[in-house]
From TrEMBL:
Top-rank lineage group of the source organism: Bacteria
UniProt-listed InterPro entries: C5-MTase, C5_DNA_meth_AS, C5_MeTfrase, C5_meth_CS, SAM-dependent_MTases_sf
Enzyme class, spelled out: transferase
Name of the featured protein: Cytosine-specific methyltransferase
UniProt keyword Transferase present: yes
Keyword Transmembrane in record: no
Phylogenetic classification of the source organism: Bacteria, Pseudomonadati, Bacteroidota, Cytophagia, Cytophagales
Family to which this protein belongs: Belongs to the class I-like SAM-binding methyltransferase superfamily. C5-methyltransferase family.
Enzyme Commission numbers on file: 2.1.1.37
Reaction(s) catalysed by this chain's protein: a 2'-deoxycytidine in DNA + S-adenosyl-L-methionine = a 5-methyl-2'-deoxycytidine in DNA + S-adenosyl-L-homocysteine + H(+)
GO BP, sorted A to Z: DNA restriction-modification system; methylation
Keyword annotations: Methyltransferase, Restriction system, S-adenosyl-L-methionine, Transferase
Species, as recorded: Reichenbachiella agariperforans
Active site: 89
Length: 367
């Protein structure tokens, strides 16, 4: 969005990563007034992609590094309508240590609470300062059941005390036009004094005509048909990129042997772990995670049927990882970092089409 174009609402982007929320909110007329991201490399990607559209946040000291920084006074954060935040999920995910609120990363939710609270307090003193209208939060699917549901209950209660009603749903990226099986919980909260609605109707997918699916039971049947081939580079494109970078995305003989050995070991033990491989006809891949750079085992692309390619599978190219998360990599999105950092960033991110669809509904139903 150009600098001078009129915007419909303002938002802040917390735990911003590479800006999945930023892109989505901007696409429905939002203007970012503050962002926060601690990771040096994610900050590079963020700046490379949003400096042109949102120069103010970079020029005016509103691209914060650490949201817990004592020098950051929450009352100095510019006023905003919507708070977006996929707060760090390690403490809540099965892969993490399940520490929840006992871990500082789990307590980062309370920084969200404090930011909203500081704006409410400011409004009580000076009515010209606005109160945040909406919060859009994201976390791993297991978040709702963490600590027997107590973590989720705590968050709902905190929001309730602040004056916000909240609805939550687990959505799957594969129903939103990207071939990835990625289930994430989305929480939409609205200030009940400012917005008089009973509930937020979550979008559950997009159909072949681009229409939103609201019937959860029908999403499997109605969702736009996609396949892994939609995000893959053509053989010649991949070969050119490999040649230019002087590297290959095909996994080594040794790694492939290790993956196959572990699969047999796991199968013998009766569990389903091990590598997962896909080809262009697969309906979706498994979830890309921040650990993808390690050995790529969660998503390998089969090559044994492609003439001229090695007989072992390959990892995704970062361009493919970007497409798998719905980033506009073919329309100007820039990856200024190494492949490993890029995998980490796309693995940590939200799927853009999911958040775009939620954002559209937030505008329609709540703003
Ligand atoms: C799950 S990722 C969110 C990704 C983001 N939603 C996106 O679309 O790319 C969480 C992010 O929070 C960042 N983070 C963790 N602690 C932070 C802190 N104290 N202050 C600011 N950012 C932090 C991490 O570096 C990570 O990029």
């Amino acid at each position: 969005m150009s600098k001078n174009k009129k915007y419909k609402f303002t938002f802040i982007d917390l735990f911003a990563g590479i800006g999945g929320f930023h892109l989505s909110m901007e696409s429905v007329g939002g203007k970012c007034v503050f962002a926060s991201e601690i990771d040096k490399f994610a900050r590079q990607t963020y700046e490379a992609n949003y400096k042109q559209s949102s120069p103010e946040i970079f020029d005016n000291g509103n691209f914060n590094e650490d949201i817990t920084d004592e020098n950051l006074k929450y009352e100095d954060i510019p006023e905003f309508d919507i708070l977006c935040g996929g707060f760090p999920c390690q403490p809540f995910s099965h892969a993490g240590l399940k520490k929840g609120f006992g871990d500082t990363r789990g307590t980062l939710f309370f920084n969200i609470q404090e930011i909203v609270h500081s704006k409410i307090k400011a409004n009580q003193k000076d009515k010209s300062i606005s109160v945040p209208k909406i919060l859009l939060l994201e976390n791993v699917k297991g978040f709702k059941n963490h600590d027997k549901g107590n973590t989720f209950k705590t968050i709902k209660n905190v929001l309730d005390d602040l004056g916000y009603d909240m609805n939550a749903e687990v959505l799957n990226s594969k129903h939103f036009g990207v071939p990835q099986n990625r289930e994430r919980i989305f929480m939409v909260a609205w200030n009940r004094d400012l917005i008089k609605v009973e509930k937020f109707n979550f979008p559950f997918g997009i159909d072949n005509d681009g229409k939103v699916i609201f019937d959860k039971e029908k999403r499997e049947q109605l969702a736009k048909e996609v396949k892994v081939g939609d995000i893959l580079l053509k053989k010649e494109e991949l070969e050119l990129l490999e040649k230019e970078a002087n590297k290959t995305y095909t996994i080594s003989e040794r790694l492939w042997a290790g993956h196959q050995r572990r699969r047999v070991e796991h199968a013998n033990k009766g569990n389903g772990f091990g590598f997962s491989s896909f080809n262009e006809n697969s309906p979706y891949t498994s979830t890309i995670s921040a650990r993808y750079y390690k050995d790529g085992s969660e998503i390998l692309i089969e090559q044994n049927h492609i003439e001229g390619r090695p007989n072992r599978p390959r990892k995704l190219h970062p361009i493919e990882a970007a497409r798998l998360q719905g980033y506009p990599i073919d329309n100007g999105f820039i990856i200024p970092v190494s492949d490993n950092q890029a995998y980490k960033q796309f693995g940590n991110s939200v799927s853009v089409p999911v958040v775009k669809t939620i954002a559209q509904e937030i505008i329609k139903q709540l703003l």
